[in-house]
């Protein structure tokens, strides 16, 4: 029996990267997947490949969520995956001293406001049945400080905490609506393109980035999708408010830990 047979699954930012891998995994497990993304052309293409539906959705826009609620009033699984680092346009100052207020707010608008709106939509779409699974894609950067990406780290830490508020709220209402967060480490997706530099420097930069990762490599989108599938399925029925790291062991210790 497929693990998500007939379940209605909404995934944000699913045109590529981790979101696309999650959409694909859910589809393989019998889910009725709705691919959403701000990039309509890429989102359409991803949905067509999967044979699933696409709806344009900019997670920052309340009106887009309202349109989704009209089109898809009932959902079983919602994955709040869409996110930005702030480096999409190339290197720029994101340290606590130099990051501009505009850049700070833009990262929070997508990562935090988008997740807040996604959780609110999900609760509305799940409470009729009184059951469902909300999965928020935070980051290992939501657990530790990142001096050069302060807005990203702050927004992901807020996603981690909001997940717990949602989990507790839903439990208080007597619903079996679970809400959990996933904390990926470095996962090789197009999000890294702007940070890995020119093709000639890429391998070297990747080795440097993963030098402190115990498993010494980038993770894959499928490795995150496998954990999302667990949280989406009934096998995780007793998990809510939890945070799961998918980071090659990065947060298990520190470079200074005794051998
Ligand atoms: P990608 O950049 O590869 O994909 C993100 C997708 O989200 C893109 O299709 C992008 O569209 C879309 N998107 C961006 N802004 C919005 C928006 N406002 N509304 C809807 N969709 C939007 O990222 P990843 O797959 O790497 O990351 C997915 C999630 O995982 C993010 O939340 C990220 O922070 C998190 N994460 C990723 C890690 C990694 O190493 N890759 C590590 C830890 C966490 P467009 O291309 O048009 O911008």
Cα gyration radius (Å):
18 Å
| CATH superfamily placement | NAD(P)-binding Rossmann-like Domain
Structural class: alpha/beta
- Biggest sheet: strand arrangement: 3-2-1-4-5-6-7
CATH architecture: 3-Layer(aba) Sandwich
Q: What is the CATH topology classification name?
A: Rossmann fold
Structure description:
There is one protein chain. The chain has 259 residues and is α/β, with parallel strands linked by helices. Helix 1 (17-28) crosses helix 8 (221-232), helix 3 (62-71) runs parallel beside helix 4 and helix 4 (101-126) runs parallel beside helix 5 (150-172). The chain has a single domain, classed as NAD(P)-binding Rossmann-like Domain (Rossmann fold). The chain has a seven-stranded parallel beta sheet, with helices on both faces. The chain has helices spanning 17-28, 40-50, 62-71, 101-126, 150-172, 193-196, 199-209, 221-232; strands spanning 8-11, 32-37, 53-56, 77-80, 131-137, 176-184, 243-246. Helix content is 42%, strand content 15%. It starts with 7 loop residues before the first strand and ends in a 13-residue tail after the last strand. Helix 1 (17-28) links the parallel strand 1 (8-11) and strand 2. It has eight helices and seven strands. The structure holds NADPH dihydro-nicotinamide-adenine-dinucleotide phosphate. NADPH dihydro-nicotinamide-adenine-dinucleotide phosphate binds at residues 12-13, 15-19, 37-39, 57-60, 81-84, 110, 114, 137, 139, 184, 186-187, 189-191.
